[in-house]
Amino acid sequence: QRLLETFVSQIALALERVRLAAEAQSAQLKIETEQLRNSLLSAISHDLRTPLAAIVGASSSLVRDSERLDDVARRELGQAIYDEATRMASLANNLLDMARLQAGAIVLNRQWQPLEEVVGAALAGMNARLADHPVTVRLTRDLPLVEIDSLLIERVFANLLDNAVKYTPPGTPIEIGAAAAAGELTVTVSDRGHGIPAGEEKLIFEKFHRVASEGNQGGAGLGLSISRSIIEAHGGKIWAENLSTGGAAFHFTLLLSEPPSIEHEENA
Ligand code: ADP
Questions:
Q1: Measured CA distances, 252 to 1, 89, 145, 255 (Å)
Q2: In testing the pocket of ligand 1, which one of 130, 156, 204 has its CB within 8 Å of the most ligand atoms?
Q3: pLDDT tens-place string over residues 172-219
Q4: What are its GO cellular component terms (predicted)?
């Protein structure tokens, strides 16, 4: 509980600074910033409290009822703790990314890399999370190297894959593909879920915008907006579409030529 409070208060402090900066601007902007801060705080409190409560519940029965539990029950409780802690870790990562992006402190540590390595690292990091979905990777042979901040691009893959797990039924396939054309690499992560409701394809990239809210499957609505900031900082584009075969496809591009040397600005 103390951890949660410290965490929330740190975020509140960061947002307070953002709010102060915005005071210099129009009254309308001030109202929007206030709304943003409130929605962030309530989303974060909810999204941290829910998994925390589950972790406290599962771990306390492991400790208290340990003698009476059989192996299967113990494993299930362990799994529940792992799943919920993973969710909190992903939210914490997104909040940290968000704080960095908000502060305008996105410094790209670019290196020429094969995309395969970044995809491999992202998949390895999400191994347990992807256990219920067959994942196919289709990268065309001899893809050119890309000059990217691989940790940040890995975060984009992690967010897209995490969504592909959250918003699709277990057992449905997820595909990662990439092809080079016209000076850029286009990367696609697609699933066979219910897709994105019509008209929401652009909105889902806005901060805090969420469509699906069945149970507490989702997070704070930050993953896609962070992913967009990361891709735009690399000079690329990111967009979503529904597939005629069902499911959603998320595409992003990475430049193959010399990357632009413009400073990234959050366009929130
Ligand atoms: P979060 O998942 O935390 O809500 P995101 O920014 O990652 O936030 O996603 C925003 C919204 O976009 C989600 O709440 C969901 O409604 C929708 N969405 C994202 N990925 C998918 C997907 N693969 N299929 C269907 N809807 C999706």
A1: 38, 24, 16, 10
A2: 204
A3: 999 999 999 888 999 999 999 999 988 888 888 987 777 655 544 556
A4: cytoplasm; plasma membrane
Q: Is the CB of 191 under 6 A from ligand 1?
A: yes
Q: Torsion angle, CA of 1/52/102/32, rounded to 10 degrees? A: -90
Distance CA 177, CA 140 (A): 8
Angle between helices 150-166 and 115-125 (to 10 degrees): 50
How far apart are alpha carbons 262 and 268 in whole angstroms?
17
Q: How many C-beta neighbours within 10 Å does residue 170 have?
A: 8
CA angle 40, 228, 260 (to 5 degrees): 135
ipTM of the complex: 0.98
Residue bearing tokens 């509140």: 12
